[in-house]
Specification:
264 residues; Rossmann fold; six-stranded parallel sheet; 10 helices; globular; binds zinc ion
């Protein structure tokens, strides 16, 4: 007992020392303001800069996840469907949720992570997703956590699937769930980022397939993506999953871009 306590104290001192030595030998500086960073939680941005991230706030649409304009939701914390979702309900997705608004720092950090391969950002991103799951998804249960897949050619070029890394960060929040890579991308699509909403739908049509359909049947699925804009990609994924017998599909993306702000 006593020896274990002593060992734990030594371990924590050693950890402190390691960090202190690392800070001296390999100092990190905030890429925004150049301030010295003294923790290992986020070696890219200092806590002050990181605190400027824009989070999605209640009330947001309980279906598409877009935050309601302040004038509409003022005074209530309960989420409700937006006019678009009431008019054209998504046939394949129960709900989309995203902790971050895709603007300013969130946009910069996601571009660094995805296109400049700064994989270390997964640590602070994982924390954001886990905090969100605790606050907003505590009553939701899933059997499978499925990352939006990349086409094998893009995966080879990038070296990692950002959605798979995010899925690994979130899986601990849903004890009944396991990560599945049954969903695969069979059509090499153009990047969606420069396309209009209609072009996105066409570009992504029939892009996905299921590797082992029997593993999808009657499953409650949480689909993971880094960014949702028009929702065309996640809707096409959900359509494929439902076609193969999935019970429900909910979506969690790290960030949400408003389609009207990113119409190109
Ligand atoms: Zn900073
Ligand atoms: Zn909506």
């Amino acid at each position: 007992m006593l020896i274990n306590i002593i060992k734990a104290i030594i371990r924590s001192i050693r950890e402190e020392w390691n960090l202190a030595i690392k800070n001296i030998l390999l100092p990190s500086y905030c890429i925004r303001c150049d301030e010295r960073i003294l923790t290992e939680d986020n070696i890219y941005y200092c806590p002050r800069c990181w605190s400027t991230l824009t989070y999605t706030e209640r009330p947001y649409c309980s279906i598409c996840g877009i935050q309601h304009p302040i004038a509409i939701g003022f005074g209530t914390r309960s989420n409700f469907p937006c006019a678009d979702c009431r008019k054209n309900p998504n046939k394949y997705i129960e709900s989309i949720q995203s902790p971050l608004q895709y603007k300013e720092l969130a946009r910069e950090a996601i571009i660094l992570f995805k296109y400049h391969r700064e994989k270390g950002l997964i640590k602070p991103f994982g924390e954001i997703l886990r905090n969100w799951a605790k606050e907003e998804m505590s009553n939701m249960k899933f059997d499978l956590i499925i990352p939006v897949p990349l086409h094998p050619l893009r995966l080879k070029r990038r070296g990692f699937n950002q959605s798979f890394l995010l899925a690994q960060e979130i899986v601990t929040c849903f004890p009944e769930a396991e990560i599945s890579q049954a969903l695969i991308r069979t059509k090499p699509t153009h990047s969606q980022s420069t396309l209009s909403t209609q072009e996105r739908k066409e570009n992504i049509k029939n892009a996905f397939e299921i590797k082992e359909p029997e593993k999808i049947k009657q499953k409650r699925i949480l689909l993971i993506d880094d960014l949702v804009t028009s929702g065309a990609t996640v809707t096409e994924c959900a359509k494929t999953l439902k076609k193969h017998g999935a019970l429900t599909v909910n979506v969690l993306s790290l960030a949400r871009a408003h389609p009207k702000e990113f119409p190109y």
